[in-house]
Amino acid sequence: MSTDLAELPQAAPTAAITLRLLPPAVSADYARWDAFVQSCPEATFFHRAGWKTIIDKVYGHRTWFYYAERNGEIVGVLPLAEVKSRLFGHFLGSLPFCVVGGIAAVDDQARALLDAEAERLARELGVGHLEHRYETSAHPGDPSWHTKELYVTFRKEISADDEENMNAIPRKQRAMVRKGIKCELRGELDQDVDRFFTAYATSVHRLGTPVFPKKYFKVIKEVFGDECEIRIIVRGDELIAGVMSFYWRDEVLPYYGGSLPAARECAGNDFMYWNLMQAAAAKGCRSFDFGRSKLGTGAFDFKKNWGFSPTHLGYEYKLIKATALPDNNPLNPKYQLFIKMWKRLPLPVANFLGPFIVRSLG
Fold first, then answer.
1. BioF2-like acetyltransferase domain: from which residue to which, for each copy (predicted)?
2. Residue 195 confidence (pLDDT)
3. Which residues have C-beta within 8 Å of that of residue 17, sequence separation ≥ 6?
4. Is the N or the C terminus of the chain less surrounded, counting Cβ atoms within 10 Å?
5. Is the separation of the CB atoms in 330 and 151 below 8 Å?
6. What is the pLDDT of residue 7?
7. Is 129 helix (H, G, I), strand (E, B) or coil?
8. Do 75 and 102 share a domain, yes or no?
């Protein structure tokens, strides 16, 4: 006996996806956003809704934190911020001041809609370029997206056992860590940013790099609370170094760090990262993310010396009004004179002027 097609059960139509924006003030939507980010395999600490608060409050850049919903459930997010500067250009990116960003989604249709919306917004704003900072390129083979192999990240598994972690460090680097131990360095945790900022600001000035404002670090700590740790390294009562780290899932990410000149004689930087690794392993972390570095820099070499292997980050750029890819980094020869001059500035002057410059770099 035949059956009329109309009698067969019909598949329910796929529910439409709606794009929405996080509101300016913290609301229940921020918690929903963060719950999705926590569960989405593609998402990172830098997709957290708190970055909207940080960028808005510290730098005043315009932000658009898009999320895609299907049947009332978030299925994709894309945080964006606009940076506009006479010195460094005009761009829309995901996400300035963060290592990575870009679209994080569990739905291909949501991903396509967020992608299209970012380009639409970039053209409406008239930016020079649209930038997505992915860990792995999201548009391989697409000629409209350009990539640059300038940045790498370093990530390595760690054990719950200190001895195993110590033995995994190459011999020469391990000797530096032991030197710090012999110098009786120790780590302390701070809830405020004062000592950390002293170490950080001194260090970046030594490199000829403009400093982020102290307010930036205060707001980061306020927003992320215990997920943001400030670790200080001391010798007796003497400040040696400091690092601000993020804890995410089972990973620790030392994000900003610095040291005073005294650190050179007692391997302060080396001990600091070992001390952080010990503490993170004790908390249950099984991955140590040494963070982003530029190829050909001292930071790149330092991290390789720890036995970490570099992985290129998939940063992508779509040119909107610009005709060439951006090149705003200290390795650009045109900035070498500026770097030399910056190193000669008195530290208080550099700390005053630096925030006016870095807000436009992203």
1. 171-304
2. 98
3. 68, 69, 70, 75, 107, 109, 110, 113
4. N
5. no
6. 39
7. strand
8. yes
Token pair, residue 34, equals 């963060």
List b or e across 77-95, with b for residues whose CB sees 16 or more CB atoms inside 10 angstroms: bbbbbbbbeeebbbbbbbb
Question: What ranges make up the beta strands (E) of the chain?
Answer: 17-21, 63-70, 73-85, 89-94, 104-105, 129-134, 146-147, 151-157, 186-190, 228-235, 238-248, 251-259, 287-294, 310-312, 314-319
Q: Which two tokens stand for residue 102?
A: 């870009």
pLDDT at residue 10 tops 80: no
Per the CB < 8 A criterion, the answer to whether 177 and 271 are in contact is yes
Q: Are 342 and 209 in contact (CB under 8 A)?
A: yes
* 263 within a domain of the structure (yes/no): yes
The letter for the amino acid at 199 is: A
pLDDT digits (tens, 9 = 90+) for 278-307: 999 999 999 999 988 888 788 888 898 998
| Domain coverage including residue 325 | 17-152+314-331
What 8-state DSSP symbol labels residue 360? T
3-state helix, strand, coil in the chain (%, to 5): 40, 25, 35
